[in-house]
Amino acid sequence: MFETVCRAIGSLLDSKWNVLKAQYHEGLQEIEIEQERIKAQKSILQASMKYCKTYFQRYGYIKILGMSKAMLLDTIYTTVKFLKTSDLSYFSTLDDLEESYHQNKRQQFKMVANEQRDGLNVANQEQYLMVLGGPGVGKSIFLRKLGLEALKGTLGHHLLPIFIDLKRFREQRNSLSEDIVQELRFLALRD
């Protein structure tokens, strides 16, 4: 009888031991999964910080002709002239809009309803922007500033700016998606 009780207790302890062992291994797996999640979050944070830093170093300064020293792009206030959505109704296609712009000798639009509107405010209000203008009027500067504001989180949208100079398309034969990947790698992964 004593042996039977001992076997029953041993069997009970053995099954409890197996349950505890299984719970221990499950706990270890959960800890390993949590450690991997934390490691991934840390890597994402490091890459994000590196991306922001490199973006700022690459696009956050501007050197204007005749200046010996580059200045912070952030210190330049950018007011950009935007057409209202109602003004766009005068044009049947985007090609007509562009043609109208290029036909005007001063390369500007002659819309009565036109008004000066801060480009950053417009970018906060509109989902899509078309930035047109002749060489040297500030299109790239505005887009670089818009990217800096996006990284600071001051825009109304959560965006990751990827600035690709369209001149690269004349020089290279990459697709847009290849250029985006290349820019992301350069900004986030470079040493």
In DSSP terms (H or I, runs of 4 or more residues), the helix count works out at 7
Helix proportion? 55-70%
Between the first and last Cα atoms, what is the distance in angstroms?
A: 75 Å
How is the main sheet built? Answer: 2 strands, antiparallel
Average of the residue pLDDT scores: 78
- Runs with pLDDT <50, length 5+? none
Total domain modules: 2
Order of helices and strands: HEEEHHEHHHH
Rg measurement, Å: 30 Å
Strand order of the largest sheet: 1-2
> What is the 3D shape?
elongated
Quantity of strands, as a count: 4
Descriptive tags:
single chain; 191 residues; mainly alpha; 2 domains; two-stranded antiparallel sheet; two-stranded antiparallel ribbon; 7 helices
Would you write up a description of this structure?
This protein is mainly alpha-helical. The protein has helices spanning 2-59, 85-88, 94-103, 119-125, 139-152, 167-171, 176-189; strands spanning 61-62, 71-72, 79-82, 115-118. The strands form 2 sheets. It has a two-stranded antiparallel sheet with strand order 1-2. Strands 3-4 form a two-stranded antiparallel ribbon. It is elongated. The mean pLDDT is 78.
